[in-house]
Amino acid sequence: MGIVVVEVCDGNAITTLNIEEIIEAEFPEVAVLMNECLSFCGLCRVRPYALVNNKRVFGKTPEECLEKIREQIKKELAIYQ
Questions:
Q1: What would be one Pfam family of this protein (predicted)?
Q2: Contacts of 25 by beta carbon, 8 Å cutoff, 6+ apart
Q3: Whole-prediction pTM value?
């Protein structure tokens, strides 16, 4: 398990990207968890999002969301450095 956890809903638009492979290759200290549902009813249908250490990160597109996830991961990792 990583020191930063990224959680993604299976029904989310961000899953058009291989988010798990991309993030874990860039950040070995991060664990990506794919879930059936993150209990934010309907949010995954509206826009791409993920939880980074329980903080919601949004984007208008999967690519924008991925970039914001990267930024949030860097903020979270800075706490441990």
A1: DUF1450
A2: none
A3: 0.87
